[in-house]
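Feature request disguised as a bug report, sorry. It would help if multi-protein outputs had a clear separator. Right now it looks like this:
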Amino acid sequence: MIKSLKIQIPSIIENIRIVESFIDNVKEKYKLDDDIYGNIMVAVTESVNNAIKHGNNCDKNKNVTLIAEYEDNLVRFIVEDEGPGFDPDNLPDPTAPENIGKLGGRGIFLMKQLSDEVHYHNNGRKAEMIFYIN
């Protein structure tokens, strides 16, 4: 049986604090281990940050939806924005020498490194991150 929690926040960067509290609640409710919690915190906040900044262009009239779904052997986080979308397969490699010194461009790389699976839907407007547990 899938259990889920959901929040929706306006696209204001300060709302990352609400996302962090949401993740803390998920950790407590589903008794997640500390080792996976750190990966979830970084990956999901990066995804929400991208949704706010790049998806919704910091438009406080557009929302970001965050859903956590818990199943027997995994927890899934879904982040969806109201922006135009993007092509996740056509991004610069943040580990390439010409990109090492750049300030941005590592969020999706971190999401892929810290999650067991990352999938994009709805033309990139919806990111799904899966973390296996047990």
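(second protein starts here, but nothing in the output says so)
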Amino acid sequence: MSNFCPNIWPEEPVPNKVKTCDKCGLIEHGSRMIWGEGNPNARIMVILDNPGAREDRDGNPFVCGTRQTLQKAASKVGFRTDDLYVTYILKRKPTRAYDKEKTREICMMHLDDQLQEKKPAFILCLGNVAVQSFFQDEEAEVKSLRGTMHNIRGMKTTVAYHPLAVRRRPNLWSLFLDDWQYLANHFHK
């Protein structure tokens, strides 16, 4: 088993054609667009709701709690950095109120482009927002879908709690780890 030390994974450059996309309105929030991180050619695509914080207030890069928890679980079940590519429903971190449903719907076009280009073997959706957006079902919930492989958009997809939920509720850690192990078992078949 390889050992993941929490670290900053390399970002995939944002394609030039979408760098200034303003369709969803998040460009007005002042956060930069983050296309994805990790290995862009990985067989596993992990989908989060948004990129969250990658820099502190002074612009210095750091590994946020979400990424620390994600990397710790991945390491525990034997994944290497090269096995994973992390991307998001929203490509910019929201910094104030916004029309969540409309924005997610608009931003899914970018994720659809990534899926067509990358064609991952597996998808892991983390958290209800990612699950509802990716499954295109506002009633979908992690707690009822976890532990199963689903065929969503023609791709093998499984789900787990959001790493931030796991940090806030440590009793979810064992379930989170079980879900990562479930994915690892399918990945190594």
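Even a blank line would do. Unrelated, but nice: The first helix runs from residue 65 to 76.
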